[in-house]
Amino acid sequence: MNAIELSNVTRRFGHLTALRGVTLSIPEGQTFTLFGPNGAGKSTLLRIIATLGKPTSGTVHIRNIDVRESPEQVRTHIGLISHHTLLYDDLTARENLTFYAKMYGLKNKSESVDEALLTVGLADRHKDRVRGFSRGMKQRLAIARATLHQPEILLLDEPFTGLDTAARSLLSDMIFNLRAKGRTILLVTHDLAQGLTLSNHFGILKRGELVHESPTENITETELRTIYERHVGNLTQG
Amino acid sequence: MPTFFTHTLAIFQKDLKTEWRTKERLSAMTFFAFLVILIFNFAFEPGSPIMQSAAPGIFWIATTFAGLMGLGRAFAIEKQNDCLLGLRLTPADPGAIFLGKMLGNMVAMLLLEALILPILVIFLDVEVFAVLPRLCVPIFLGTLGFAAVGTLFAAMSMNTRLQEALLPILTLPVLVPALLAAVESFRGILEGDTLSDIFPWLKLGGAFAGLFGAACLLLFEFVLED
């Protein structure tokens, strides 16, 4: 079964066409990285998959569920990690996770929160307000928030933005762990090296069109850079 | 349907907890309302007949503008770290998100009103405590209508550049019937009217709160959309 299936998806904002007939299938368990320059439509695509926006035309299915028909049901299968933490600064780590546990209707809230805090190494800081956390700690808690309801699909929107080397490495390890657990991951990033390391399939989006799609197997960073530049243009020119 | 109310309650509790911890919203609202009443204290002679008839208007001017300030803050916490996105990613119905936020705003408004009524007595020398049980009805209805309309427009204006200016411009014209009913019923009660005497105004306030509350509940989904 395909975890994510987009068929001829177009999204227009007035005169601007953000996505042009994107067709993409991501099987369960695959880690797919979407590269592309700014304004290519990567975030728009991610938001449509996350049910935050509707396509102007075309269809999107998440685990065979139409996002237009049952967005609430789709959301139970999806977790999103972005460069924003989606956490409340004035609540503690535990309170944030308990709030989301209630929103996702989890049965064993306390146990789920304990487990999530333990997994991201924040069990000893559970009573501390998020406001006092470092960027790396906040991002770890954001991962706990996104994976609290055990979603089968994880959407990562530039998750490495603003992280220092240690936090980046920790986040990479966590993504590898989630990949090992069989989660389907769709990563959106500018960082070719990071995307290549983390994924087993990649695509390039340019001006709303999916211009390239292939496995990452046997592809070196230099080759990826060449492919990217062939489709998008010189990297140094942004 | 139980899930709808579970989500509503979770958002409401979260907002109360955040406010209790920071007290940013209520303290700013109360100070603003206090300043409005203080200015009117200088404009009119406290305890004079003109003050008696102006007091209901002063009360609602103070609460409305202080309330608008609070509405902006209610969505500022959702804007911080893109938390509203987090809410939208959950399976919660947009109506439940609206209701949770609206209840939070309403409780903040009711607390503000409870705090400024004594200020009204002290600075304007208007006797409200003798008629307080009767006053609670129009105050509750006015606050309900304000919270419903205000929550919707606060969410709409949240991502605009002119949020502070846009929110009163959008909200106040729509609120006219609710404020009119609230001021007139407040005035009637101060002048010794019973609830049945002011029933037409209460009916207007109740109808406004009911109709606009339901409309805002249904329309909130479109406000959240990209």
What does this structure look like?
The complex is a heterodimer of chains A (238) and B (226). Chain A has 238 residues and is of the alpha/beta class. In chain A, 35% of the residues lie in helices and 27% in strands. Chain A has eight helices and ten strands. Chain A has helices spanning 42-49, 71-75, 93-103, 109-119, 135-147, 165-180, 192-198, 221-232, and strands at 2-13, 16-27, 31-35, 57-62, 65-66, 78-82, 153-157, 184-188, 201-206, 209-215. In chain A, the strands form two sheets. In chain A, strands 6-7-8-3-9-10 form a six-stranded mixed beta sheet, sandwiched between helices. In chain A, strands 2-1-4-5 form a four-stranded antiparallel beta sheet. In chain A, a hairpin with a 2-residue loop joins strand 4 (57-62) and strand 5. Chain B has 226 residues and is an all-alpha fold. Chain B has one domain. Chain B is 84% helix and 0% strand. Chain B has eight helices and no strands. The radius of gyration of chain B is 18 Å and the shape is globular. Classes of the chains: A alpha/beta (238), B mainly alpha (226).
